[in-house]
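Subject: Protein record for review, amino acid sequence with backbone structure tokens
How to read it: Take the token row as a discrete description of the fold.
Enclosed: The protein record, placed directly beneath this head.
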Amino acid sequence: MAVAMVAGSVVTVPIALATTGSRLFGPHVLIAGLGIALLSSVAPYALEMTALRRTPAATFAILLALAPAVAAAAGFFILGQTMTIHDVFGIVAVICASIGAVCTPPGEPGGRQKA
């Protein structure tokens, strides 16, 4: 995640400097940026790590697989975004694949054990 954040910054900071100039370093912008960083990256990651320590791995995996559905529901109810049938199918496929991976016993594909 740290590498992705640095890569994103390397791409976006020069563009922001070119379009806004020194206003990018104003106190209001820096405080807003800090708040966004905490709420979009630090807090969710810390909460996920806490949940991972306190719940079984299988339960955590299923809850994590529900993240696309929760995000889609938030987009629908809060932002008024709509989803296509392809979006819904993709979310259902991700959830089913995760549940299948968690519920399938170790061994060969399909859950069959070697004799």
